[in-house]
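worker-03 picked up job from queue 'complexes'. Input manifest follows; four sequence lines, order preserved.
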Amino acid sequence: MSQQRHGNTPGKTGAVPAFPDLPEATIARLPEYLRALHNLAETGADTVSSEGLAAAAGVNSAKLRKDLSHLGSYGTRGVGYDVALLIDQIEYILGLDQRRAVALVGVGNLGHALAGYDGFASRGFRIVALFDADPERVGKPINGLLVRHIDELGRAVVEEGITIGVIATPAGAAQGVADELVTAGVTSILNFAPCVLSVPAGVDVRKVDLAIELQILSFHEHRKASLTALPGGRAEQAGNQEAVGS
Amino acid sequence: MSQQRHGNTPGKTGAVPAFPDLPEATIARLPEYLRALHNLAETGADTVSSEGLAAAAGVNSAKLRKDLSHLGSYGTRGVGYDVALLIDQIEYILGLDQRRAVALVGVGNLGHALAGYDGFASRGFRIVALFDADPERVGKPINGLLVRHIDELGRAVVEEGITIGVIATPAGAAQGVADELVTAGVTSILNFAPCVLSVPAGVDVRKVDLAIELQILSFHEHRKASLTALPGGRAEQAGNQEAVGS
DNA sequence: AGGCGCTTGTGAAGGCGTGCACAAATCGCG
DNA sequence: CGCGATTTGTGCACGCCTTCACAAGCGCCT
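worker-03 finished. Artifact:
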């Protein structure tokens, strides 16, 4: 119902395109490396060792080396990685050299905050349009941008060259908005609504559910409490630093 | 630096505690199942098949059955799962039967929205205290709760029985806040600041970085664009619905 | 020029998670 | 009361990811 699983992995179409098909796990870590690299660049470092960068990104150094090797990275043995070069490499792979235009749908409590979030602009994204279904909100300016009615979405996507849509509506409205985004030509969706979206093949959906994160923490709290309460509980579990991202 | 990896998996301490050690991947999906179950309960359904629940949660039915079997779940062959019973089971496992007290640190742009987010209260959490370092913000009410100065954090944690802390400060302040939370006795942290936190063993950290999610989408956009531009690109990639969570 | 120390890149092994496919179990109906 | 339809629970195989350990390469110092 939600998503077909493309049961059979399609056999290689033959010629490998000029794009490295990186493991998903690696892709999910590249942004973290990128952030760490920007920090290092600000401190004036020219090169980093895999050990140093791994520490800054919170991962194992072997993992980092393997990740970077996947994208055919240029490091120098005995020296390390060139910070500036690596930044360019990763930004190119992530497609951040072009500042992507993003549409945000739903300017309620959470959406309002997202519209004003600095982190997007500073990391390669421009929120170029805000939408809402509530007439009360339409026309109001947020962070220098006017909220438009959702009916204008189709036109705006084409005019502004929008490729990514962010859904911050209530759960009940999310599927409808997703459908409209897809119809308008958006092929990547970031969904903050607590529900499963159904989209056609070729459209990527990532979901962020804030309550789920808390519930996972709650589980670990529950577990820790039940362990320390028990006699044999040696409480040897290490705090694990888990990051989101598939 | 960031976190030790407890290199050797500790040999079974002997008696397995009265707590199932579920795979992390399963734990991350339980909240999604729970949400789907609540939806089903509202529609008046008494039982669900694994197929039906899996569709509602956006996963494979086999995976769902295996997940539920891990927590020794009670389903009935030929019938399905008892919705109400399963809700209780999962809520117990996740430790949601007790409404956990949460402290939120940093009521800037994002923190303000989190403080007013309905989704927390409706899914088993109470934000009981807000903190900020900015005197300008201290004393102001947000959603019926007064913002306190961060210096009061230690006392509040004890008095209010807080076990989970949410960090929504700028990156530069996050590590300091994390240290204070840990000192105060908090053992679970949800970090929205774009940085790696270093915490002692026994403390769990989960990180949500909104920009990273967009960057991952950007990668897929970049990949799709380069594929469709190529001659051999059959564009048979299926839209993958990926959820956050380790 | 040669050797030494440091760091990358990677082959191999192990672990974890996923998904298939089927046996076991339960209900309902004739 | 027995049989068939339905659905759960799980053994098994496969693939991905992680981690270790080490050879290959690079720069520096003597």
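worker-03 released lock.
Residues 1-17, 233-239 of chain A have pLDDT under 50 and may be disordered.
The two ends of chain A are 21 Å apart (CA to CA).
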